[in-house]
Amino acid sequence: MTNNNMYFVANWKMFGNLRSIKSTNNVLKLTKSKKFQKLRIIYCPPYTLLDALIKKTKNSKISVGAQNCHYKSDYGAYTGFVNAKMIKNIGANYIILGHSEARIEGDDDKKINFKIKSALDAKLKVIFCVGESLKNKNSNKTSQVIKKQINVGLKKINNYKNIIVAYEPVWSIGTGILPSKIELEKNINFIRKLLNKKKNGKKVIILYGGSVNSYNIKNLTKISQIKGFIVGGASLKAKNFIDIIKKSII
Ligand code: PEP
Predict the structure, then answer these.
(1) Residue 133 contacts by C-beta under 8 Å, 6 or more apart in sequence?
(2) Which tops the pLDDT comparison, 159 or 53?
(3) Which residues are 219's β-sheet partners?
(4) Which has the closest alpha carbon to 190: 144, 229, 156?
(5) Every domain of the chain and the residues it spans
(6) Cα 131 to middle of ligand 1, angstroms
(7) 168 given a catalytic annotation
(8) Ligand 1 centroid – CA 99 distance (Å)
(9) Alpha carbon nearest to ligand 1 atom 8, residue
(10) Tens of pLDDT along 117-174?
(11) Distance of alpha carbon 178 from alpha carbon 65, whole angstroms
(12) For the domain with range 7-248, which CATH number is right: 3.20.20.70, 3.40.50.720, 1.20.1250.20, 3.10.580.10?
């Protein structure tokens, strides 16, 4: 079995400056070698670095995405925000939506649904994050929460061609704590079932995100339902990101 077509999404969160762009040099080199050519590597830097990264990765196997957008499709008087078509217009192809750190800042399921629709209209590929908080998990509400996030987030969306779902338990993000294999399989299978119920939802792939690093990646890649990873903290240093990518290939 080979898994050399996996997704690796580098979520830089609110980190990085123009000097950070250099850190993609070795990743670019890696994508040129045959073994890694089929990998889908997507850098999601802050808005301020999108243009520089898009230019740097032009004509390469690396794609670039944003970390959020405003829910309005059109231009308008929304100081401090950008919409999906502005992101597409500068050459990005992906967007992370529904991330728990954006949910904390006010993105609820309904708003995320508007954002997904506007991103799809703008022809962006959406990486839609779902996952339970520690409080949800401890009160046995994981399935209930994920079900609502998926069903409201994807309401009235019929075309899933450009949607990827990422399971990111909030309590695992940035904590170094990972769900057990059993827990991961259970929750990802649950997401799979919810997606399969939707017309055209069967082909949607599911990623995992939360404290992925070069030590735990080998075990994570053994879980066949996981088709790739969102890597936050560990993607900020090219060496760590490359280690993760290399160790993921069987
Ligand atoms: C994330 O923010 O999407 C993430 C997975 O973060 P980390 O890898 O740092 O837990």
Answers:
(1) 100, 145, 170, 171
(2) 53
(3) none
(4) 144
(5) 7-248
(6) 12
(7) yes
(8) 9
(9) 232
(10) 999 999 999 999 999 999 999 999 999 999 999 999 999 999 999 999 999 999 999 9
(11) 25
(12) 3.20.20.70
The answer to whether 192 and 206 have CB atoms below 8 angstroms apart is yes
| pLDDT tens-place string over residues 57-106 | 999 999 999 999 999 999 999 999 999 999 999 999 999 999 999 999 99
- Output the furthest CA–CA distance in the chain (Å, rounded): 52
Tokens of 71: 């829910």
Closest CA to 152 of 208, 196, 110: 110
Mutate to test the pocket of ligand 1, among 9, 13, 213 (most ligand atoms within 8 A of CB): 13
Work out the angle at residue 200's Cα, subtended by the Cα atoms of residues 197 and 206, and round it to the nearest 5 degrees: 75
Instruction: Please say whether the beta carbons of 174 and 232 come within 8 A.
Output: yes
| Backbone Cα Rg of the chain | 17
- Asked about 70 being catalytic, the answer comes back as no
Section 102-111 average pLDDT: 98
Q: In terms of Cα–Cα distance, which of 187, 168, 72 is closest to 121?
A: 72
Provide the 10 A C-beta neighbour count for residue 33: 8
Rounded to the nearest 10 degrees, the angle between the axes of helix 238-248 and helix 25-32 is 20
Counted residue by residue, the chain has a size of 250
Six token digits for residue 1: 């079995």
- The verdict on the CB of residue 166 being under 6 Å from ligand 1 is no
| 75 burial level (CB within 10 Å; 0-12, 13-18, 19+) | exposed
**Cβ proximity of 67 and 81 under 8 Å:** no
